[in-house]
Each structure stands twice: as C-alpha cells, then as structure tokens.
Design brief:
- Helix content is 35%, strand content 20%.
- The longest helix is centred in the C-terminal third of the chain and has 28 residues.
- It is an alpha+beta fold.
- It starts with a strand and ends with a helix.
Amino acid sequence: MTNNLFEGGSMPGVGPIHIDEINPTLDALEQDLGIDLKNNALGSVGKKEYSGDIDVAIQVDPDKIPELVKKIEASSLVLDIAKSSVIMTKVKIVNYDQTKASDDPKHGPRTGFVQVDFMPGDPGWMKTYYHSPSSSESKYKGVFRNLMIATICAVYQRNASEEKIDDGRPVEVERWMWSPTDGLIRIKRTPVPKKNGEGYTKKNQNVKVAAPIKDADGIAKALGFDSGADLNSYESLKAAMEKNYEPGLVNNILSSFAKNGTVIDIGVPADLEPEQAPTETLEDKQLARIRQLSGSLLNSSVMISGAFNR
C-alpha cells in the first residue's frame, strides 16, 4: 500500500460505484474495521444509480485519529490512503460489475475502485448537514439545499443596529448562522477593531448567544418552518418559505440565493431565472417594417406638400 499523507481531495485510480455495489463494499469494510459505516453514509450515497465516491461520518476523538488511520491501513480492501481534513482511501469495489458503465462525464471512467472518505465528526449532525435528496425528490444537489439554508440564516430574524462603521457594516448584527461543525447557531457579529484602535479590519467576530441546534426538527422550528422534512431539498425549502414567510422576505432570500457565486457557477434554478424577453415573430418584424415605411412615406408627403404650398 502507498501511504500518502498529503493535502488533497482525490485519490488516483478511483471511479464511480454502482448503487448495487455500495452495500457489499461497505459490508466488507465494516467487517474488516469493526465500524458501522452503512448507517453513517453521507450525502447522496445509495440515492442514485452511480456515486462518484462514498463519504462516511466517523465518531472519533482527535487524538485517536492516528490509531484509526493505522486500522484503515491494515484493511486488505484499502489499496491507498491519504489524509487532508478527512481520511481518503482507495477501496476495492466488492462484486464489481464491469458491464455497468456510468454515462456521467463528471464521474470519470469506472475502474473497479472507489474513493471512500472517512470524515471525523458527530455522525448524527453530519448526516443532517450533508443530507442530499434523491433524484426523485429534487432536481438539484445537496449543495443547493445547504446554500439555501445558509441564505435563509443570513436574512431571517436578522437584527442589525442602525449605527454603521465607515465601510457600511452595522456596528452589531444578531442573526442565525449555518455551521458545518456546530449546527444552527444564533450569533452576535461585530467588526474586529484594528490593533491601533483606529477603525476596523475587514474581519468580523462571531459570538454564540444561544446553544447550537443540531436536530432537524429543532432547526426547522427555529427557522419558522413546520418540521425537519422542510429542510430536505431546495424545493421543500422554497415551498416552506412561501408558506410561512411574508412575500417580501421570500423575494429577498431568493434574490440573494440566485446571486450566490456557487449557485451561478452550477446554474441558477430555472424557476429563479429572470423572465425571458418576448420573442419577436416574423409577423412582428413585418408589422414594424410596415410602420417604419408608413412613417417615412407620411413624412415625405408632408415635405412635398409643404414645398408646393410655399
């Protein structure tokens, strides 16, 4: 096994895994490692025909991570390992069916090996944060759902002081924040003063003003929704806002969401695209030309008439 402990995000020689191969592969890994993996799989794993990789949440103390790495290295199914913010591995796909070929170019070719990322943290919370709806539930990836929640947090129940500093930031803002590690938290945000006491830096300081909320129903209630099911997807969030928020607030949130750089890069949802300008038909063009010619002829007639009358 090659042991590459480096910063990175992709292992060499890996490819997508078919949904029928996920359980056999994780079953074999579970038996080798003695760790519950299937119940802690994150994102869209098992929700679509092909997955580019498998992300698994692992409950482990930071000082026990080296021990976990050694245990993973010892598995006969793990062909390569690397560590960045997560433990990345190249794993042999069990019951690999080479006749199944993904037609999604972003996944790359099938190789018989898949990347499995072991992500240290609270599995319960990580499954909530990294939740991704199935293709039958949403047209959009889980990242859209998370970006929508983050946008809601920035606007819903935002209390900003009227007093502002030179660059336009409020002296103090109390708002919600969507944190990948802490859950939904209520914070008080203030600009960080310069060390010399003259003005402020571009940074902000966030101070928690209430205990974090990590369960889906609690998060939904804090954001003014009915239940954790409202957090499932971009579509369910949009429907929940339209049901529970004033129209002006909904428009503000959707406008901010549509301007997000990541959303723009991936593609703004069709229902948020600006209305297309009416298409000019051939009849419209011909009518416009007739009016133009009619106007020209009328002007010419007026000029000729004026000439004779002079």
